[in-house]
Amino acid sequence: MEIIEIIKQDYQNFPKNQTYSIYADDVYFKDPLNEFRGIQRYQTMIGFLGNFFREINLDLHDISLQENCLKTEWTLHLTSPLPWQPRLSIPGWSELKLNQNGLIIAHIDYWHISPWEVLKQNLFGFKQNSQ
């Protein structure tokens, strides 16, 4: 399906050159820190990430389509703008719900770690799990 290729490319380019035309105007977005509706706010959030953080990489580990829902498994890596420039690593997954026209009407992100763990990465840096 074409949307899968678009999503793969958007993850590779993230946060630059995103394909906003695959989202409905009133798209619903939710992650552990944000919840809102509307493509304008979605674009603003992506722009903020790109302007505030540095060295952003969004590694796509898996993508699958089941009925009207795309699921992606990913890890977001970025450098915080704090003076000691900690490198953050946020593993998670997204559920992208599609309408009958194939547009994304809901983008819900889940993290495999808590927001508290992300805050600790800002303070102490990312520690690789030794398992």
From TrEMBL:
Top-rank taxon of the source lineage equals Bacteria
In terms of InterPro entries, this protein maps to: DUF2358, NTF2-like_dom_sf
Q: Which Pfam families match?
A: DUF2358 (PF10184)
Q: Which residues form the signal peptide?
A: none
Q: What is the name listed in the Swiss-Prot or TrEMBL entry for this protein?
A: SnoaL-like domain-containing protein
* UniProt organism field: Stanieria cyanosphaera (strain ATCC 29371 / PCC 7437)
